[in-house]
Amino acid sequence: MTKHGRFGKYGEKKRIERLRQSGNVQGRMQRKGISLSRKTAHHKDKTSSKTQVTTRQARPSEVDYIQNLSKKVFQQYGPYETMLQRWFEAVITVTVLALMGKKPVGFAMFTHPVKAWVFPRACELLAIAVEPERQGHGTGDLLLSEIERMAKEVGIETMVLHTGVENMPGQKLFRKHGFVPTEIKKNFYPEGQDALVMYKNLSSNSA
C-alpha cells in the first residue's frame, strides 16, 4: 500500500477527528428542516418504458449495501468498502441512496465542511457509486444533483473530489456537472494509482 492519500501519513483516525470537528451537516440539515428525501422525475430505461428513481438519506441498517457496492465498483483502488463503512458509522458524512422502488441502485457520500481545504466552506465528495447494470441510465446524474442540492442548503460553497486519472466515465460525469480539474496527486490510492482533484463552486451555480 502507498503511504500517501487517504491512507497516508495523517491516518484514518486523524481524518475522522478533523471531519468531526468541522461540525455535523446532518444535524444542521434537520434543524433547518431541509428535506433529506426527494422524488425524481421518470427516467427512461433501455430495458423498460419508464422507471421512477427516488433518492433519500441512507439508514444505519443499509451500511451493508454501501459496503457491498463499494467493493464491487472501487475494488481496484483498495479496501474502500472498509473505509466508507467507518466514515458512515462515525456520522461524519451524509450519504444518499438512489432507489428503484425499494431496491437501492447506488449511493453518494459527502463530508461535513472541511476547514483544511483552501476553498471557503468546502466539503469533499468521498464516493459516488452506481450498480453496473444501472450505469449510463442517469442514476449518477441524479445522485450528484441531489448531494449538491443538500450541500448548498447548509451553506457549503465548494465541493471537492478525487477520481482516478484513468476513470474517464467518472471524469465525464463530473465535468458535465461543472467540476473543474485542479491538480494530480501521485500515488493517492492504496493500490498506487494517481488521482485527479476536481472542484465545483456551488455558490455560483443555481442547479
Quick structural gist:
By secondary structure, the protein is of the alpha+beta class. It has helices at residues 11-21, 25-31, 63-74, 80-89, 139-153, 168-176, and strands spanning 37-45, 48-57, 93-100, 103-111, 122-130, 158-164, 180-185, 195-201.
Task: List the topology elements.
Elements: H1 11-21, H2 25-31, E1 37-45, E2 48-57, H3 63-74, H4 80-89, E3 93-100, E4 103-111, E5 122-130, H5 139-153, E6 158-164, H6 168-176, E7 180-185, E8 195-201
Parallel strand pairs: 5-6
Antiparallel strand pairs: 1-2, 2-3, 3-4, 4-5, 6-8, 7-8
Could you characterize what this model shows?
The chain is built from 6 helices and 8 strands. The chain starts with 10 loop residues before the first helix and ends in a 6-residue tail after the last strand. It is an alpha+beta fold and 207 residues long. The protein is globular, with a radius of gyration of 16 Å. The chain has one domain (5-204): Gcn5-related N-acetyltransferase (GNAT) (Aminopeptidase). It has an 8-stranded mixed beta sheet, sandwiched between helices. The longest helix has 15 residues, at 139-153.
